[in-house]
Amino acid sequence: MTTPTDPAPATHTSAGSAPAPPSLAYLPVALFTTVMGVAGLALAWAKASALAGAPALPALCLRGVATALYVVLFVLYALKALRYPAQVAAERAHPVQVNFFPAISTGMVLLSIAWLPTLPGVAHGLWSVGAAAHLVLTLHAVGSWIFHPHYSIQHASPAWFIPAVGNVLMPIVGMQWAPPDISWFFFSIGVVFWLVLMTIVLYRLFFHEPLPPPMRPTLAILLAPPSAGCVAYLALTGQVDGFARVLYSMALFVFLLLASHVRQFARLPFSTAAWGYSFPLAAFTMASFEMAHRSAYAWYAVLAWAGLALLTVVVTWLAWRTLRAALHGQFSRPQ
């Protein structure tokens, strides 16, 4: 429902008039997961280049694409916030969509990791702003879970992991500038909330109705916390110890579980939630390259290269489907 001070542009016109421009009112905040996916692909290629001799050009090109995509989405969503504050407030109050707001700060942190090798000053600024923003958004998300008037168990979904994943990522570059305790602070938040949310989400999946088809791709997000946690833990400690192996082994189990149901995922209709396949797979690929580099077992390298190939195909397919959806006006109407 619109108000005189917050009019939504018309999406149709009378005969003979020029078509109206797409409306920003319904631009979903979940689109920031596209930045996470493209940036994750860039980081996976960068990891393959640094640790396994892959060419550097794909990582450099993808880094530029991810940066441009973030800037465009940030400007568009800022315009939406200025022009249609009621729609933004509705997303912030929504029990599922509220969890996609931390994707904004997570995308910034991922870009800081991507730019660290060539522009450390820019990377430092991106990480500092992204870390502060992510803490605020995490507090808001967790506060909405605790002090809520409307949540039920049916609202629990893997999308709730997004705030946790962003915290886990902080040590990857945070150890470069901030005191170690800062990185451990964020890492601890991410790991503990991952365990808590895993319990809640699995209870919902085991004992209540399945996720609706448009949201089922978010099941892939279950792969992100242990995978990103493994990469971050190695950045914190510099060694493969028992806990690193626990994190990677859990990630491998979730990857195998998801792969065993790939036919069910392939039959799902496309939605923005399908980008949930991208970053978790990127994090698992990066963790595999790290484990291959730090251990003598060749099967880590097999998993790493297979993951990179699959990730490249998946992100290419998602980009094509998203562009097609945008051209058909899918993001200028209610989701």
UniProtKB/TrEMBL annotation:
Which segments does the entry list as coiled coil? Answer: none
Q: Any transmembrane segments, and where? A: 24-45, 57-79, 100-119, 125-147, 159-178, 184-206, 218-236, 242-262, 274-292, 298-320
- Which Gene3D superfamilies would you find in this protein's record? Voltage-dependent anion channel
Main localization of the protein? membrane
Among InterPro entries, the record links this protein to: SLAC1/Mae1/Ssu1/TehA (IPR004695), Tellurite_res_ion_channel (IPR052951), Voltage-dep_anion_channel_sf (IPR038665)
Q: Name one GO cellular component term.
A: plasma membrane
Subcellular location per UniProt equals: Membrane
One MF term in GO for this entry?
A: monoatomic cation efflux transmembrane transporter activity
Q: Which UniProt keywords apply?
A: Membrane, Transmembrane, Transmembrane helix
Topology class, membrane: Multi-pass membrane protein
- Name of the protein in question: Tellurite resistance protein
The organism named in the record is Extensimonas vulgaris
